[in-house]
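Example record

One chain of 306 residues, shown exactly as stored in the release files.
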Amino acid sequence: MPQTTDAAKFAVDEAEFATFLQEKTSSVISASTIGSDWSGLQALEVKQGDEAFQSPPLQSHFVALCIDGFGVADISFDALSGPKRSVVEPGKLCFLPAGHSSSFEMAGKILSLHTFIKPEVMAAVVEKRGAGDPSGTNLEGFVGHQHAAIQDTMLEIRAGAGRCDALWADTMAMRLAQQIVDFTWSPSAEDDTICDLSDLHFCRAIDYIEANLARDFGLDEIAEAVGVDALHLSQGFAEQAGCSIEGFRTERRVGIVQTWLRAKTNSLSIDELAARVGFAGAAALDAAFRSHLGITVANFRAGRFG
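Predicted structure tokens for this chain:
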């Protein structure tokens, strides 16, 4: 995570980025600077849909929260990682570290809340934590996650924009930074136990599953991508998710097909829908629908739920 405060090395500030988004996306609904010069806390509401653009590097850290809509996005960071595919739906988060550009391509339509906080805030949180080296905070993997506390803080920032003073805003910026650091910190190996899967590893597993729904893959492949032992992953994932990895994967596949079927303009055949999310064919998709929803795909599409 970049900790430098040398703003001159970064390309654009928050106001310039808001202008950039206005040009590249459907619309910037509102923009509020609510922090002091120290925190630079900002909140933007942005409508996006079926678009692709290259984002310039920013002076501030950037956090996006989907608050409405549905889409599938391919995101890559310069010199960090990517491209990374993620399902974008209410509650999903994305983090872009200061000083890094990103490539963004999305199919779908969403309403998102964008929040900016300056690197000084994150650096202060890391120093307060007493961790020393900030490299333990793995921000390049922070795409497509869900985190209730971060979501609540961002929505509170949104609600307070324009009505609260700079002290309140700086406090909220510190809270958000603390939650991000706590969430993305990679624990040392001796801190892990066989049934205690870290939040970061859990979310990495979810990201990998969702990015590869259209093909078949096993537990060992996910464990290697996440960076943990397969047994550790299997037991820890079941403990946190309340279901097995295979059960979660099937549920996500069915959920995505449900979303597509609700879009009345979708004309894909059941075989095509099955292939898009990794089922062997229409029969396998139908069996999953019957198991999870108690209804066939054809009846769901037709709106016959009784």
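Notes: Residues 1-10, 132-137, 187-195 have pLDDT under 50 and may be disordered.
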